[in-house]
Amino acid sequence: MAVNLMRRLSTSRGLINSFREDHSRRFPIGASGGIALYYCSSQNSTVSYLDAQSEQTAGKTALNPDKWLEFKLQETARVSHNTKLYRFTFDPSVDLGLYVASCILTRVPIGGETEEGKKKFVIRPYTPISDPESKGYFDLLIKVYPEGKMSQHFDKLKPGDVVEVKGPIEKIRYSPNMKKKIGMIAGGTGITPMLQVIKAIVKNPEDCTQVSLLYGNVSPDDILLKAELDRLAASYPNFKVFYTVDNPSQNWRGGSGFISKDMVLKGLPGPGDDTLVLVCGPPGLMDHISGNKAKDYTQGELSGVLKELGYTAEMVYKF
């Protein structure tokens, strides 16, 4: 039986729940390189075969950047006390249409109407953490905030429910060996675009990029996908990860406190033409490390720790 990737992704230091695996449902673990897999669902009693694409489906994508489309939720898994993993499905005979690194927009109605009589929606961007080449599904990692309209909506979703999605939304377009060294600074769910890039690099034997990740969280229990990150670091010598938490536990062996100049000096590649630093996290982290994006969502000016250490705007990308 194939290893359950979703269970491995959702396993992280004391995780108590994972994707269920029983006689009524089978989850595909990866479908790439022309391998034909299938999944069975007790809800619709159908079998979908992932064979070679026909002429009718070749080149088609499940995502549309100009149109909202519905995607059905297949299953959820709890990753931490306030974060869940969501798997959505689509026609496995077409590509998702995502590239590294890009994200999608989600929207849900929040009740009421605008002055023009149209429905009111809340819209949020998310970066799938599944391989963009995965057939028939994509996975979202979402932290549930007490006052978060979108995350609260996701928290109430059940298998079979649908969410409207549009995309892909262009971020940085990664290509193999575009830089010799890539540094990453992430906080909380800011790990999602980093994981997308990391996986693209390590799965390509011809990509020699050296990747270093500084990942900050409130506590050890808040570190998302730690088991998967540790697995990747142990399996690929060109990927290294360093953790730091604000509130360390008694047996914590990683770093303590906010990401500092000293951590950046020790853990990330120094400034240079062959270096790129990616940053993603909550506004406080962004302001401290690189400065937030401009109001029009462009990169804005570089500031914070990275500027003080000699990095230039050309060497930094803010997700």
Record keyword descriptors for this entry:
319 residues, alpha/beta, Elongation Factor Tu (Ef-tu), domain 3, Rossmann fold, 2 domains, six-stranded antiparallel β-sheet, six-stranded parallel β-sheet, 14 strands, 17% helix, OxRdtase_FAD/NAD-bd
3D structure, described in words:
- By secondary structure, this protein is α/β, with parallel strands linked by helices.
- The protein has 2 domains: 5-49 and 61-170, Translation factors (Elongation Factor Tu (Ef-tu), domain 3), CATH 2.40.30; 181-318, Rossmann fold (3-Layer(aba) Sandwich), CATH 3.40.50.80.
- It contains 7 helices and 14 strands.
- The protein has helices at 5-10, 149-155, 191-202, 226-235, 261-267, 283-289, 304-308; strands at residues 38-40, 47-49, 69-80, 83-89, 102-113, 119-126, 137-143, 162-170, 181-187, 210-217, 239-245, 255-256, 275-280, 316-318.
- The strands form 3 sheets. Strands 6-5-8-3-4-7 form a 6-stranded antiparallel β-sheet. A 6-stranded parallel β-sheet has the order 12-11-10-9-13-14, with helices on both faces. The protein has a two-stranded antiparallel ribbon with strand order 1-2.
- Strand 9, helix 3 (191-202) and strand 10 form a beta-alpha-beta unit.
- The longest helix is centred in the middle third of the chain and has 12 residues, at 191-202.
- The model is unreliable at 1-5 and 10-57 (pLDDT under 50).
- Pfam families: FAD_binding_6, NAD_binding_1.
- Its cofactor is FAD.
- This is NADH-cytochrome b5 reductase.
- Its EC number is 1.6.2.2.
- Keywords: FAD, Flavoprotein, Mitochondrion, NAD, Oxidoreductase.
